[in-house]
Amino acid sequence: MGGAQPRTSCRRLFKQLEILSVPCHYILSLTNFIINNHEIFQTHSSVHNINTRHKHHLHGPNANLSCFQKSTFYAGIKIFNSLPPSLTILKNDKAKFKAALRKYLYTHCFYCLYEFFICTDDL
């Protein structure tokens, strides 16, 4: 399809053909869940009155159990809070947010969640 050799990395082809990798699909589906169900999540500013730089981030519940820390609810909050600020300001406009998130994921083509969490690039 892309004319690549059998042992060639697909990262360049994914970007060229605008195909999302499996971790990117995971990120996309979790953030879509967060955006579509934003009323069940609290921000830091709704939990406390301290004016911090992360006051608009989602507040993650305290979790002692590893099974809860590995759940999609907890992971969704962690992923959403790791998005660049240029994406999170679009969270009130679902169509623009989803389009910008897809563009961000296409251009970066993450192969694992660790790459997503350490990425400091903005759009």
Walk me through what this model shows.
With 123 residues, the chain is mainly α. It has a domain at 27-41 and 57-123. It has eight helices and no strands. It has helices at residues 11-17, 22-36, 44-47, 66-69, 72-81, 85-88, 94-108, 113-118. Helix 2 crosses helix 5 and helix 2 (22-36) packs antiparallel against helix 7 (94-108). The longest helix has 15 residues, at 22-36. It is elongated, with a radius of gyration of 16 Å. The mean pLDDT is 84.
Give a count of the beta strands, DSSP E runs of length 2 or more.
0
Tell me about the largest β-sheet. none
Overall 3D geometry? elongated
Write down the overall mean pLDDT. 84
User: What structural class do the secondary elements suggest?
Assistant: mainly alpha
Multimeric state: single chain
Gyration radius over CA? 16 Å
Q: Helix count?
A: 8
Q: What labels describe this entry?
A:
elongated, 123 residues, mainly alpha
Quick rundown:
This protein has 123 residues and is an all-alpha fold. The chain contains eight helices and no strands.
Show the helix and strand layout.
Layout: H1 11-17, H2 22-36, H3 44-47, H4 66-69, H5 72-81, H6 85-88, H7 94-108, H8 113-118
Helix pairs in contact: 2-5, 2-7
